[in-house]
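To the structural biology subgroup,

Please find below the input and predicted structure for Putative pre-16S rRNA nuclease, which we are adding to the shared reference set this quarter. The sequence is reproduced verbatim from the submission form. If anyone notices a discrepancy with their own records, reply to this email rather than editing the shared folder directly, so we keep one authoritative version.
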Amino acid sequence: MTKKEKARPGERTIMGFDFGTKSIGIAVGQEITGTATSLGAVKARDGIPNWSEIEAHVLQWQPDLLVVGLPLNMDGTNQQVTFAAKKFANRLHNNYRLPVETHDERLTTADAKARLFEQGGYRNLGKGNVDSMSAVIILESYFESLWQ
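Predicted structure (tokenized):
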């Protein structure tokens, strides 16, 4: 598919991000299958990532949409990091001129830790692993919300 062709709804490649102030997990998924794959994590300083690492992923995967996990309190209200995640989403849009959506990410870290522990025990629970698995879960949850 050339860059100018738009993917049809249901056939988009979507890149997901688990925003954090020290690490940002990245995953890529296919809307048609509803599945996502980890691309690892990028280190960040006060929520500012190495943009060249993110750009490398965007150029490689040519996503049609970017989804950023929105960290909310359990009651659905904003917390301080919510605003930082929204700022990150805006920067993604400005840097890559791609549509960006946010998606509720409550409990993804706990889910990610449980999945990783099942796969490899405690040694599998490194910060980068948890963040990248959280990005996978954010994308899978986003896909599920499209079918509801």
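Summary notes: The mean pLDDT is 87. The first strand starts at residue 13 and ends at 18.

Regards,
Lab coordination
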